[in-house]
Amino acid sequence: MTKFSELNLNPKVLKAVEEAGYDTPTPIQAGAIPPALEGRDVLGIAQTGTGKTASFTLPMITLLARGRARARMPRSLVLCPTRELAAQVAENFDTYAKHVKLTKALLIGGVSFKEQDLLIDKGVDVLIATPGRLLDHFERGKLLLTGVQVMVVDEADRMLDMGFIPDIERIFSLTPFTRQTLFFSATMAPEIERITNTFLSAPARIEVARQASASETIEQGVVMFKASRRDREGTEKRALLRKLIDNEGDKCSNAIVFCNRKTDVDIVAKSLKKYGYDAAPIHGDLDQSQRTKTLDGFRDGSLRFLIASDVAARGLDVPAVSHVFNFDVPSHAEDYVHRIGRTGRAGRDGKALMICSPRDEKNFDAIERLLQKDIPRVDNPLGQAAPEASDATQDDKKDSKPRRSSRSGRGRSKQTEAEAVQVQDTKQTTVEKDAPARTQPEPKVQQDTSQVGSDKGNRNRRNDRGGRDNNVVGMGDHMPSFIAKSFDERRAG
């Protein structure tokens, strides 16, 4: 079996690796480090949690150990899709370069431009950045990329999902043609393939696992969930999540709960805290300081549940995550692989459970097609019929029908409409029978007939001529005289 000592790394780098507790490289590391040290372009494809970050940090540190950076001209560039992943890559450089005198700068959003400008002005060997903030510095004239010797694109497929491809292409155009380029990703979409063919020159392709495959150390399961009522879906789904957590007991030492929408992240986190669970949200709308604090708390064990959007689905390395709960089925099948890859890392066992509602079944089928296997079904611990059997729910359902019918006729059955028409006909017949007794002219009415120009006088004169108003149903008291005349003419004819 290959050892790190056999990979021709710098002795000071090897010392740092040994101090970090590593002796044997992972398959992606053993495959990517030798060609990277030779100066070749590398295209690395491996499932998440297999050590892709060290696959490029170790050879980069070895290559950059000789030489010196110049002001505003970094010697290497690492592009990451999210702030958290960029910060994690920076931590890896700190770990493996502690015996080598290399400088680095981290360019991410949510941090003062001034502090970052000061680092760049001094000159850095390693520049780690998100594409947007990197281009911001370049457009302000604070950064030149003509001195980049090694360029790394980490989580390339995530760059595609987040719409960074135009920015990546522009950044490539700002770097020297002679640079060395390293691409790493867990999946390889056609658009990523096009970019690699454009910007990589005869790359060494290292593919140590089938694309979009999940680690065998992760136990997977899915609960097919159907709410008793549409307006109760969120409440019942959160109750199901709490029950799944409780059923895992002490085995669930910590967990990441993934939601599709940022609003759901906040709602689920608030709900779990309400029921006594130690939980906090993390998503792109939060301040960077709060995101960093929450993530640090989850890493050091002071926070048990991290409720996250897909900002935490890629590249984040928290080795001891015991469980992943997919509160929502991801809309992109590849995201499922990345989400559950937060557990079962570095050979550890992990468990991933997902809640699938009827409207998510199409996305769920896409996930099983991608994995090329069925995800085991797990019985609903609350019981599928349990919500419908509760008295309160049944009462709610009974009360809801009359309310809907009273607002509109859409909920009324044909039989009910027929009965209503029959009742109306009965009332009308009764009115017609009683009409002669009730419509005897009173003195006031006789007085009104003297008003020749009024509609009321016209109506009374018609009554005197034969009571035509009793035979015209539904026209109302305001019917003009010329309309009544047309009815009289038809009858006479």
Question: Which features does this protein show?
Answer:
single chain; 493 residues; alpha/beta; Rossmann fold; 3 domains; seven-stranded parallel β-sheet; 20 helices; 13 strands; globular
Give average pLDDT, whole number: 79
Radius of gyration: 37 Å
Query: How many strands, what sense, and barrel or not for the largest sheet?
Result: 7 strands, parallel
* Secondary-structure class: alpha/beta
Q: At the fourth CATH level, what is the homologous superfamily of the largest domain?
A: P-loop containing nucleotide triphosphate hydrolases
Total helical elements: 20
Outline of the structure:
This protein folds into 3 domains: 4-207, P-loop containing nucleotide triphosphate hydrolases (Rossmann fold); 218-381, Rossmann fold, CATH 3.40.50; 414-483, no CATH class.
Provide an overview of this structure:
With 493 residues, the chain is α/β, with parallel strands linked by helices. The chain folds into three domains: 4-207, P-loop containing nucleotide triphosphate hydrolases (Rossmann fold), CATH 3.40.50.300; 218-381, 3-Layer(aba) Sandwich (Rossmann fold), CATH 3.40.50; 414-483, no CATH class. 46% of the residues lie in helices and 12% in strands. The chain contains 20 helices and 13 strands. It has helices at 11-19, 27-37, 52-64, 83-96, 113-122, 131-139, 156-161, 165-174, 190-199, 233-248, 262-274, 288-300, 333-340, 361-371, 386-389, 391-407, 414-438, 443-448, 455-465, 481-492, and strands at 42-45, 76-79, 104-107, 126-129, 150-154, 180-185, 204-207, 218-224, 255-258, 279-282, 305-308, 323-326, 350-356. It has a seven-stranded parallel beta sheet. It is globular, with a radius of gyration of 37 Å. The protein starts with 10 loop residues before the first helix and ends with a helix. Residues 385-472 have low confidence and may be disordered.
